[in-house]
Amino acid sequence: MGDYNQDSIRYIAITPSGAYFATLNSTPDDARALLLQLLSTDFALLYSLELVAELADLDETQAMGLFQQLLDRGFVALTDAPPEIPRGPLEELLPDMLKQLSDSGKSLLADDQGFCLSSTGYSAEQSETLAALAADLISLQERHKQVLNGELGLAGDSWGIMNAVGQSQIGCWVLHIGHQRFCLVISDMPRLNQQAFAALLGCLARRYLEY
Q1: Higher per-residue pLDDT: 189 or 9
Q2: Plot region of 91 (φ>0 → left; ψ -120 to 50 → alpha; else → beta)
């Protein structure tokens, strides 16, 4: 269980799993709303119960319970040092972060219109093709989300192209940032447990999230 002694100075850091949960889908959820608030912040946050209550728009008792759940699930952490927040134009930050998300260095980020925001490891033609595929998958997921997320109980919006033994050759993760949707395309073995994944989603949240 996480320890958030108010007598000690701690910074709130969102983990890769927390960033993933925040953008998993657009279903209203107190935990998801708080994580998105944390993702979109452009400065380091010192932990206090008052701050969490304000960000979550809950009373302090509810906020304390919610934050403890996030700690227990590994979605947030309390750190001695402030988390690093990438600075600079999005188009300059994305390539390095994307490269860290695949063991072969091949990954791409596209929006729901098929525009490639950035790619690494792919040719221009491959990037264009994969961005178009990503937009089609976002549309497909939207059309069938009631069955996929509701009746079948599938929580996420991820798709994959597998080889004969079930190993992923290309994975596609639909990301929800407010009303905006993006698709992260990764070839070979994904590495979404990297802090670069949380940093990438933080950059998108700061650019596109609207309140």
Answers
A1: 189
A2: alpha
